[in-house]
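One chain given next:
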Amino acid sequence: MRRKAGLVLLALAVFFAALSPLLRWYAFPRLAKVPANHYQAVVLEAKNATLLDYGTMRAKKVSKVTVVQTLKGNVEASERIEESAGRDVVVWDGLSYIVGPDGEMVSRIPERYIFDAHTQEPVHATGEMVDGDPVRREGIEFKWPFLTEKRNYEYFDAQARVTAPVHYKGTRNFRGLEVYYFEQTIPWTKVKIPKTLPVEGLTPESVAETGTTRWYTTVRRFWVEPLTGAPVHGEELHREELRGGALLGGRDKVTAFAGHVKMREDHTAHTVDLVKSQRLPILLMTSWLPWGSLALGLLLLALALHLEARGRRASDPASAPAEAPSPVSA
């Protein structure tokens, strides 16, 4: 019976030891993915900002500029692209809607971001765009990969339509979470005029006819929770200028927008709480279950060896007690 129990324990030990790497390196990469129907809305604010008054074409100080950024999963589009891509795909229809202190629109820029649901790598397909213009993204945008590493990544800038490094700057504690801090700098770059402008009749084409161009620079800051790859907070030191042309009345340049854009406090708090809850299943798959399975396998192996050793000692003739000699008859 001991031998049979030992063999059963040995078989279980091998099973749980083999299960450990399978959970981490096979199951997790296939199970961890961004849901196709994901939706989020984030509000960012720039207080005491500078904003262009299109009526006078003069920059003025304003109390606040608000950026409402929404990302909505397009399930129908993702299923259609998956048929040809042969992998799990997520399609996010995004919108950056900017309003001034009076609630009037400053600009609105739609996006379509298509990426691999597991790795967050871009998937190039029809419909990928920024403000109606086709683009071919390289690098990540909005979300980092699961199990974000302490290294630089390539990050797509939707304003300039370019990919540039976003640099890992260290590990920090943010609201009770260990996060990785990243920073990206986009130098002054000539960018396109938004297709939707706050003045009726003003279009990118009419602005271009005046010879006026739009320039932009920013420093982006991200606090990323590494297990989920989700930014729990974001900021931008953002500047835009209009330069040259008849639209400026002979001036070289005018500030279109300048401000320190930060995620609003209530949205930061909500994001932190959400990410804390999302960390648990990832911890289970990448740490608790694999290590627990390995520990259980080693424990079962020790028990199997212990039973085998006891069984050998019990069956060893040398270990049996010697019988007392019988008296010799006269």
Q: What stands out?
A: The helical segments are 2-31, 75-85, 204-209, 265-315. The CA atoms of residues 47 and 64 lie 4 Å apart. The longest helix spans residues 265-315. The mean pLDDT is 91.
